[in-house]
Write a structure and sequence with these properties.
Largest sheet: 7 strands, mixed
Strand content: 15-25%
Number of strands: 7
CATH architecture: 3-Layer(aba) Sandwich
Structural class: alpha/beta
CATH topology: Rossmann fold
CATH superfamily: Vaccinia Virus protein VP39
Shape: globular
Order of helices and strands: HHHEHEHHEEHEHHHEE
Length: about 240
């Protein structure tokens, strides 16, 4: 089994406990991070009506719910939200969580990978988000090219992620201790899958730094407009606009 399939299978295994583990491990702070991502993205969209938002690696649908909940707060109305994820287990949870919105055709969910967004026409998306999913994509460059393809000109790319630190300060070492020691233990207790939660700190170490990610976006014609680290730089928000 190749690396990408192994990662997908890992998420299939932890899907039933994924939401509860997230709330415990982040102490609920991830809700604030997601809300801030929505707020900043809406600032770069001039139109009051947003036709289509695509959430890649949508998982159990958390980010989709945040798009819906926060649109009216920031003076926006939404057409459709599309979610795509390669894990059937995660999508099954999302389908149950979002069943009312799916039945009313406000939300569509698809099984698929970030590197191949075939169901999505080119230049059809106003906002594309990926929250804590890009790190799990083996072929990041292919995924970013797909993001550029489906975004409209002037479309907004939203990346929330745990990024690699080029140089660690004292605070980084403290948060690193949490992600490397405490998080795998607690996540393993909740999910009964210690291997999956040992994967998280390892995936951060092998991921891109903010500077490297910004460089990759520049290569595909996405101009970085906003970068901010949250909660002692545990989480990074990057907003880009397709030129």
């Amino acid at each position: 089994m190749d690396k990408q399939k192994q990662i997908i299978e890992m998420f299939n295994q932890i899907a039933p406990t994924y939401d509860s583990a997230n709330r415990i491990l982040s102490l609920g702070i991830d809700i604030k991070w997601r809300k801030q991502a929505c707020k900043k993205a809406f600032e770069y969209i001039e139109d009051l009506k947003i036709q289509t938002i695509l959430d890649v690696a949508c998982g159990t649908g958390d980010m989709i719910l945040h798009w819906q909940k926060n649109a009216h707060k920031f003076g926006k109305s939404l057409g459709k939200i599309i979610g795509i994820d390669p894990s059937g287990g995660m999508l099954q949870i999302a389908q149950e969580k979002l069943k009312d919105q799916i039945q009313s055709h406000e939300i569509e969910l698809f099984l698929g990978e970030a590197k191949n967004l075939d169901p999505i026409p080119s230049e059809s998306i106003d906002i594309l988000s990926i929250a804590y999913g890009l790190r799990n994509v083996v072929d990041i460059q292919a995924a970013l090219r797909e993001f550029q393809r489906v975004l409209k000109k002037g479309g907004v790319l939203v990346i929330l992620e745990f990024t690699k630190k080029n140089k660690e300060n004292f605070l980084d070492k403290i948060t690193g201790f949490y992600t490397k020691k405490i998080l795998p233990f607690v996540g393993g207790l909740v999910s009964h899958n210690y291997k999956a939660y040992r994967y998280l700190p390892n995936s951060i170490e092998s991921f891109l730094s903010v500077e490297m990610l910004q460089e990759e976006l520049n290569k595909i014609g996405v101009d970085t407009k906003f970068i901010k680290g949250y909660s002692a730089n545990i989480s990074t928000l990057l907003i880009g606009v397709k030129q």
